[in-house]
Amino acid sequence: MMEDLNYLTISRAHDLLKMKKITAQDLVKFYIDKIKKNNPKIKAVITISEKDALKKAKFIDSKISEGKEIGVLEGIPYTAKEMFMTKGVKTTAASKILNDYVAPYSATSIKKLEEHGAILIAKVNQDEFAHGGSTENSGYHPTHNPWDLDRVPGGSSGGSAAAVAADFGIFSLGTDTGGSIRQPAAYCGVTGLKPSYGAVSRYGVVSMASSFDCIGPIARNAEDAQIVFDAIKGLDSKDSTTVGYDFSNSNDETNAIYYQVGNILDEEISKHKIEGINIAQKEPVEKLGITNEALAAYYVLVPSEISSNLERYDGIRYGESSQKASNLSETYFKTRGEFFGTEVKRRNLIGSYALSAGYYDAYYKKAMQVRTIVKEKVDKVLEKYDVIIVPTTTEPAFKIGSKSDPIEMYKTDLLTVFVNLAGVPSVSIPFGIDEDTNLPLGLQIIGKQGDDLKILEIAKKIQSLTKYHERVEGITL
Amino acid sequence: MNKINRSDIEAAAKLSRIELDSKNINSITEDFGSILNFVEIIQKAETGGVAPTSQVTGLNDVWRDDEVVKSEVEPRVLIDSAPETLDGYVKVKKVL
User: Fold this and answer.
1) Which domains, ranges and CATH numbers included, belong to chain A?
2) Cβ–Cβ contacts within 10 Å for residue A207, how many?
3) What ipTM did this prediction achieve?
């Protein structure tokens, strides 16, 4: 092949396909070869879907050779987190309880991408049922950060972020309940969008905490994230929590408030003057006054929703079932005891505890009230400013095994969780480089509910200047 | 400080329908106390008269037409997903 196919963006790959410089089959083969070669080191991929991907690529190639127009996503290879149900390809949620589960239908987002001609080439690792921030809680194996194999890729969509950073496909689909798209995107030096709650259908995606779960792309840059978001967003009769947002966008000057976290990225922020973006106010994130409260409320509300949502893994209808059970009750207890991992058990128990008689008012109800306070505060700031700008994480990717205390792990979501409580959209882009480790850092741009396109526009403007998203030297493959 | 003991964990495990071995119970008992202390921050929040938020869409009573929509999945396929089946039914262990 004459063309350099490494680190293609969607539009570049689309141009190459249109100009017949490459075929869709070449592209699929290129990524699958790359996965086969480098995945033993990264361990981002759980299942490769080679045969089906090549079949789809062949169809698109025949379309191109017949001179037909192709859409921008047609023939574009991508990966999806194990949370997404994909008809015919295993869906495990990285849990042993769904070890050999093959979904009978595909998630709406997967279907929409299929309709747009994108090609699913692999399913990727995550924390079991998305419970975690490092992908170490996977029921299978941890994933390694392509920038430093001793470090985590973040999580829970760690497989997705690592796959994009390692160039295992052009983009990936992830889920974000408390930061699970943005935090791994920051740790892996890629772009991740958590859309407004309800912008993308959750139908066919394994449920974690239904009032928080969002679906979005992890991609090479904001432009690609927008292309994918455009394809998957919208009302879905199968998910009654989808919202018909008016995603209009204006090109007016943006007034931003920048929340400082220590002095991370401070210098970077002052260095780049971006046309059309006015940082009208700068103050320490403590002044926002809700990050710790949001995190605490999150770790009551989300386990509560988890304990309800995960009731469905009963050893009866689908998934694994304990062979040691002798009656119905034992089927439940033993199946869940044998096949759930430690963090999943822990969260189920916390949820049951917080919802149980005597504790409901003190924990669950109180946390829902704190959610109101957090949402009102975020909305109020966003009435005054168009967007909030804040680092995605307080540090770069950490070493595998270094956060064995669950609280330490929960704290990695400190700067992302309040966004999910409020349901507003946020995009994390690679921004700056950590001096000590040379690892990527991330910056979030947070907008009002429904302002998804606006924050993507801002991210694109920043990326047209900073080029951090193009940095690949330092990726150890 | 929250005093959490083994019996609290056993009670929560029972509500969660999860069998735990004693190693699990010990480690979860330890973590549980520190997690409850961590979430204790919310107790300090002034929430008098604050309505609880359970969802952020602003939607309520989402209706659809009362029409039968044919599922794209055959019932047979769903039943076949079960670990144990018999004559087209999901088979369960005896209840008592």
Assistant:
1) 10-254+388-470 (3.90.1300.10), 291-368 (no CATH)
2) 19
3) 0.96
